[in-house]
Each structure stands twice: as structure tokens, then as C-alpha cells.
Amino acid sequence: MRRLLYFLLVFLLLFSLSYAQEIGKLEFNTEVNSNYGQDFSLSYEKWWSDNLGIGANLAYNSLSTDFSYKFLLQTPYIKTLLGTFYPGLNLLTNSLALKGYQLGIYIVNDEIYYISGKGSRIFDYSSSSKHSSLDIPIQAMGWYRAFTKNIFANFSLLSFQPQPSEEYYSLDIMLADRTALPLGNLILTQEVNVLLKNSYLYLSTIVNGELSMGSMGIKAFLGYLHPENLSFCPLEPGDLGGEISLSIPISSNIFPEYSLGYFYNSSGKSKLNLGLKIQFLISNYINIESMIKYLYYFAGDSNLNAKISFNFPALEGAMWNSIYVSFEKTNTVEDTSLGLNISYQF
Amino acid sequence: MKKTLGIILIFLSILGLVYAQEDVLKNIEKKLSTAKDISMKMTITTYSYSSKGESLPTKMSMELKTIKDPEILRVDFKEPAILAGQIFLLDGEKKITRMYSPSTKEIIESPYTMTQTSTTGATSIPMVGESGKDFSITIEEVSEKNQKLYKIKGIPQKAELKAQYSSLELYVTKDYMPVRLKMYDVQNRLYMEIVWDEIKINSNLSPNQLRTLPPGKIIRQKTPSTTIPLPFVAPTK
Questions:
Q1: How far apart are CA B64 and CA B43, in angstroms?
Q2: Whole-angstrom distance between the N-terminal and C-terminal Cα of chain A?
Q3: Which of A147, A204, A234, B11 makes an SS bond possible with A151, Cβ 3.0 to 4.6 Å?
Q4: CB–CB of A19 and B222 under 8 A?
Q5: What is the pLDDT of residue B2?
């Protein structure tokens, strides 16, 4: 009993349920890619509280001369997003990037939002994906509801036009339940999606679980995306499968995260997904992060993404500077990037 | 006359022993409280017992670094795996506490109230300083691995302490550095052992070195986080 009490006391030291907020962040990033020229990005965020903040991001690519921007205004009553952003509505659209706008109105514990623009599925670990165009017209209207401090729901109706002559609708219901644990959280999320296409209804679903306890964590998802649907998440149309990732520190300096996924696909695109991320804290002033992600299609194709970053905290940790190299190889593209990131939190 | 001398000698030797006890405890307190900075490794092993009486140890280890001026304490947790890599920083000058978590790469920052004063000195070691009054103390010299140590044994005198411990044993080096603390429960079974290792005093620790945490998203909290009295580094009011 005494032992339990003792460890509970230590846990109390390390975990607090208090209300949290981030104050501000200024970030500059530039990246040279062998295929896509040089990217520049400057972003700024300032938060006075969790529901009062502003943000801006300006980005430019030297090869395409594309200029993109994002502006954010968050108040207790209204949220406005304008430019290129990830709406992050639910699990099945968590990789959807959109160029357009989002308007949200808050009424007590509810948010009613409207989104409009052109979007595509973008993976932030892939240079080719990040430089692909956002070309699918998308509109969404939704309602986000916090039933309690730990139970949330999101209802959305999405319309998209993969071709000018086609317009599809999908209804999405997501429920999330968070349980606070002594050193972390358990978050369970369930989502059901019904696609209306040419008078037929098609069902997709995904379940996601995240358990974090101190320096350890397990994440897993299991899902099915109907072949008739468009994908705005890691699942391809027709995929049935899941992925599990596990974080267990090797020591107090080395933190690996292993992931393994398998997805059966009825159209012969079944795949195996292997991933490894490692963070190595060498000292107070330098740490190394590396990531490798390998996707093997049983039909014979494969994708490889790898990245290694050297991070240098400065100004007592308020600033961190990072240089990184990333590599990507698929059947259609092979590219290498060299990047510099400077981030300052205040 | 011989009898009187004998009594005087016994009295003087008892008196000398009392002074020696006080000297050892005072010297430990002085050594640690006058240090500008201290770094050490600390391992805490707690024991529970099965119905057959077998001891089941659980170990927690950490690295502690503290500076007296400005008042900063940093704890890097090493084991068990669930805590490995977590870093706790208490900054008395900036009046904040920070907690870094490697799994989320987040730094939770909380205000540090004025009523809490981090004390990394000797007063947090049981039997040393003010807490010594709560114990009946005896000191003897022991040899361990070719090293001579003071073994300070304390029997609790206060009822609330008696309800928890039968005795405490603190081992310190001849130059007054704590080595090990053993705590025995009311059934006289070892239930906690704290081992201090690689203690370095005045090694010129810099505030910047202690304050620099690995890269992480800083999240500021409006309310103070709960702090607890870790052995040896307990906050006092």
C-alpha cells in the first residue's frame, strides 16, 4: 500500500489535468528538393488563451513560383481559416489538405462549421505528396459537440466532385472518448461514413485507439474504406486492415517507435506497412530523430520514405534549430531533400 | 576516588558520543546546504512482500542536478521504462516548473507558487537537520567494500512516524556524503532503500545547462502543477 501511495505521489508530480494553452510560436523553414526546387515557409501563431488566438503562414516554392498562405483567427465565438490548411475533421479526412476557407461558430459547447475549397490527400512525410495539386472541389458542413469534458462527437456532411460531372455526398459520424490515466490518456475513437453515390449507399468505418502512459504508448487503428469512396486518409479505397505502433524507450536517451500495418485490398493492392522512428537524446544541446517508412505492395511495388533530423535546442529550450535530410523512392518518383527549420516559442 | 573517576569517564564518553553524533549530522547538513551546486544519481527501491514473505522490489532511478543561486532543480528520470526520459525542472528564479515528456514531445509549463520553496539541501534527508529531533539516534562506524562509513540509526519517537517505520538507517561517508538510506516498516522489514551515487558538489553547473530541455511544444498551464516531496529534494513550506 505504501509503495502504491509513493508511486501515486510521483505520478501526481508528473501529470496534471490542468487547463493548458500555448502562448506563441514563430517558425521558419526552408527545404531544397532534387525534384521540386526550394520551399520557403514562415509561420506565426499567438494565443492569448485556448480560444483566442491568431496565426499566419506564408509559403513559396522557387520552381513552380507557387505562393500559398494561411490565416487563422480564433475567438470564443468564431473561428476563421483562410488559405491552405488541414481541416482535420475526423479520422477519414485526417490527411485532407484544402485550399479554401473554414468558418466556425461556437454556441456554448457546440461548433457549427462550414468548409469550402479544393483539396487532396497530402502526406506530410512525402515530398511528392506535399507538392501535388489540390484539385478536388470539396464542401462540408458539420457540427462538433463536446458532450462532456472527455466525450466528443463530430457530425459532418461532405460533398466532393472528383470529376466536374460527378458530385458525391458522404455523411460522417465520429465519436471520441478520452479517459485520463495517471500518466497519460486512453482515447478511443469510432467513426462511420456513409457515401451516397449514384443513388447507392456505401459504408466505410474506422476505429482508432491511443493509449499513452508516461514514456510509453500504443496506437492502433482498424478500418475499412469502401472501393467507391475517395481517400483522404492512409487507407486506400478498398482497404481493409489496420496498423499498430508501439513506443517503448530503450533507455532514458533512446526512444523508438515501431509500427506495423497490413491492409487487404480486393482490387489486388494488398500491402504491408513497416515503420520505425527513433529519437536519440545525445545531450542537452543536440538530439537526433530519424524516421523510416516502408510500404510493400504484394503485387510487387514498394514505397520508401526516410528522414533524419539533427536538432539543436537553444535559448534554454525556447528555440530549436533543426537540419534534416529526407529521401523518398516510389515506382514513379525518387527525390532527396535538405532542410533547415528554426522554431521559436515565446 | 576510582569510582568517581570511572563515573566521570563514562559521563565524558557519553557526552563525547552525543557531540560526535551531533557533529556528524551537522556536518552532513553543512556540507550539502553550503554547496553552490550538487549533481547525483539516485535510485529508490521499494519492496512489497508476498504472502510467503518473498520481497518484491520495484526500482526507480533518476539523475538530480541542482543549483542554489538561481534556485533550479532538474530531475531526469532513468527507470522504470514508463518514466524513462521524463524530465522535471523546477525554476525558482522564473517561478515555473516544467515537465518534458519524450512520448508526446511536450513541455508542460506551470506557475510555481511562492509558498513552495525548493529545498535540495540536507533538511530533506530524514534524521538530518530539524527532522533529527523526531528520532532517537545512534551512530557507529562500519566498513563496507574497503570504505569506512558512518551508520546512523534512527528510531522514530513521534507517534505518526512510529506508525510507519520501525527504524531508519542512513549511511554516510567519512567526509559526510550520504550513500544510502534504508527504511524499515513496523514489521522490521526493509520497505524502501535510497541509494545516492556519483555525488558531485560545486561542479559549476550552469542555469542554461539545466534549463535546456529537448525540443518540444511548450504548453503553459494557468494553475500550478502538483508537486510532491521527493526524498532528498522535498519542497518545504
A1: 11
A2: 43
A3: A147
A4: yes
A5: 55
Question: pLDDT tens digits for A2-55?
Answer: 443 344 344 444 444 444 566 889 999 999 999 999 999 999 999 888 889 999
DSSP lists the bridge partners of residue A25 as A45, A345
C-beta separation of A305 from A129 below 8 A: no
Interface-testing mutation among B73, B103, B113, B194, with chain A (most A C-beta atoms within 10 A): B103
8-state DSSP, B56: E
Put simply, whether A251 touches B (Cβ < 8 Å) is yes
**Residue from A80, A29, A94 nearest A225 by CA:** A94
Question: Would you say residue B82 lies in a domain?
Answer: yes
Q: Is B225 near chain A, with CB under 8 Å?
A: yes
The segments of chain B whose pLDDT lies below 50 read 9, 11-19, 114-123, 227-237
The SS3 of residue B20 is helix
Q: To the nearest whole number, what is the mean pLDDT of chain A? A: 90
- What is the distance between the alpha carbons of residues A34 and A69, in angstroms, rounded to a whole number? 23
Cα(A189)–Cα(A209) distance, rounded to whole angstroms? Answer: 6
Residue B14 located in a structural domain: no
Nine cell digits for residue A215? 514514456
Residue B15 within any structural domain of the chain: no
Torsion angles phi and psi, residue B63, rounded to 5: -115, 130
Cβ density class B188-216: b for 16+ within 10 Å, e for less: eebbbbbbbeebeeeeebebebbbbbbbb
- Contact residues for A229 (Cβ-Cβ < 8 A; gap 6+): A170, A193, A195, A202, A204, A237
Residues of A in contact with B77 (CB under 8 A): 252
Cell 539545466 belongs to residue: B210
The C-alpha cell of A146 is what?
463536446
Cβ partners under 8 Å of residue B9, min gap 6: none
Q: Rounded distance, CA B66 to CA B235, Å?
A: 13
CATH at residue B193: 2.50.20.10
Look at residue B235 and tell me if it is in a domain: no
User: Does residue A207 sit in helix, strand or coil?
Assistant: strand
Task: Count the residues in chain A.
Answer: 346
For B99, how many CA atoms within 13 A lie in the half-sphere containing its CB?
25
Does this model's pTM top 0.90? My answer is no
Query: What integer pLDDT is reported at residue A182 of this predicted model?
Result: 76
Tally the domains of chain B: 1
What angle (nearest 5°) sits at the alpha carbon of residue A240, between those of residues A236 and A241?
A: 100
Average pLDDT over residues A304-310: 97
CB-CB neighbours of B50 under 10 Å: 8
Whose cell is 457540427? That residue is: A143
Q: Is the ipTM of this complex over 0.90?
A: no
Residues 11-50 of B with CB under 8 A from A: 46-48
